[in-house]
Design brief:
With about 400 residues, this protein is α/β, with parallel strands linked by helices. The chain has 12 helices and 20 strands.
Length: about 400
């Protein structure tokens, strides 16, 4: 995105024109940016040559998934729905990893039938359930075991997954016990040590600590894992303050790890691939004056973008057209939903806005539409994909008939 004169553009197309043609609220994605992100990611980890599995929970749009698949990615899924969507989008079964703490018997059975690369398990109960289903099907099933490394990723507590108080993975003691359990099974093939410590991580040091924990556990287990799944969690610079994860240092630490271990690395990036490729355009409905701040009521709401309400997550809000007028009071950007948490951002200094002006909420490609809902019986927005000068609707706007 960049301004030309006073107008904000995305890949050469004016947001104002896109809003006029497709209406608002509107999700806009840049295919160019997705390709740039994947190229950058692969360049940093070229010497490692990992398996890349895009985290479908970040964005499950079929057209976007198909483009990501074309760029050499597999898929990381956490439900039967995501697994079916991954297959529909063209991902090969042998590049799909099934994660998550609560897989049902139906989900496990479907995954086994589709011969996916791995089912990453998270408890003894889950392992026994997989063994039972595999025995009935007379099949040998490849699994991983997720270790909880008790590593603080220094991220939002709502998206931390690698500390001992989190529900994910098992402790070192249980992990070692489960290895012995699986080794005795005729229907389970232990292939992978899996780990994931959280999301929106901007410091390489938690990853370094995580690798040290993994190494100690591998040494104790004396087991040769074919794969080590390091998860994802790589953050992006939402605040545009040049605070980015040092992928080079992370790659160097992994290279050191691989000198001691003959295994294949699996990555499960989501946010770092898609977040800054997507933006939400919204129109001002009213400007409501308050004593200390003015409320800018827009036609997007927390049902369209849940992250600020759910995590108190920050997203920049910028005008689609610049002017030289300054607002006299701070602006709080809010939606029409009947909840006090239906707000996006409070900005102390912003240009003066009026009814029907357009604003753009930035970096919403990850966990934007995938967390959207019909709360207050509001319609889900349309999604468009920008490919050079071409624009394609990749998800139609819902209609009242659809939901009523």
């Amino acid at each position: 995105m960049r301004y030309k004169s006073k107008d904000l553009f995305i890949d050469g197309l004016k947001f104002e024109s896109l809003a006029k043609k497709f209406a608002t609220p509107l999700y806009c994605y840049s295919l160019k940016k997705i390709k740039e992100n994947i190229k950058n990611f692969k360049q940093h980890f070229k010497r490692i040559n990992p398996i890349y599995c895009f985290s479908i929970k970040a964005n499950s749009n079929t057209k976007l998934l198909n483009e990501i698949k074309k760029l050499g990615f597999g898929a990381d899924v956490v439900s039967i729905g995501e697994l079916m969507k991954a297959l529909k989008s063209g991902f090969k079964s042998n590049k799909i990893v099934f994660s998550g703490v609560g897989k049902t018997a139906k989900e496990i059975s479907f995954a086994i039938d589709k011969k996916i690369l791995l089912i990453n398990t998270e408890s003894k109960g889950e392992i026994l359930e997989i063994e039972k289903i595999a025995k009935n099907k007379k099949k040998l099933v490849n699994i991983g075991i997720r270790l909880n490394p008790n590593t603080d990723a220094k991220t939002l507590k709502q998206i931390s997954t690698g500390k001992k108080e989190n529900k994910f993975g098992v402790s070192e003691k249980i992990f070692l016990e489960l290895i012995e359990l699986v080794k005795r099974s005729k229907f389970l093939n232990l292939k992978c040590l899996s780990v994931h410590i959280g999301s929106q991580i901007l410091d390489h040091r938690p990853y370094e600590r995580m690798l040290n924990v993994i190494q100690k556990v591998i040494n104790k287990s004396k087991f040769n894992f074919e794969y080590v799944d390091l998860g994802g969690g790589m953050g992006i610079d939402y605040e545009k303050n040049n605070k980015n994860l040092n992928l080079r240092k992370y790659a160097t630490n992994i290279e050191k790890f691989l000198k001691k271990n003959n295994c294949k690395i699996i990555f499960e990036p989501g946010r770092s691939i898609i977040a800054n490729a997507g933006h939400l355009v919204s129109e001002v409905i009213y400007i409501k004056e308050g004593e200390k701040k003015n409320f800018v009521i827009v036609d997007a709401a927390m049902n369209d973008l849940m992250r600020p309400a759910l995590y108190n997550a920050y997203h920049r809000v910028i005008p689609a057209k610049k002017n030289n007028q300054k607002s006299q009071k701070p602006y709080e950007f809010v939606g029409p939903i009947c909840e006090s948490t239906d707000k996006f951002s409070t900005v102390k200094k912003f240009q003066k806005l009026k009814k029907k002006d357009l604003i753009v909420i930035c970096d919403v490609g990850a966990y934007g539409m995938s967390l959207s809902s019909n709360y207050n019986l509001r319609l889900k927005p349309a999604e468009i994909l920008i490919n050079g000068s071409k624009v394609k609707i990749i998800n139609k706007r819902q209609t009242l008939r659809d939901i009523v």
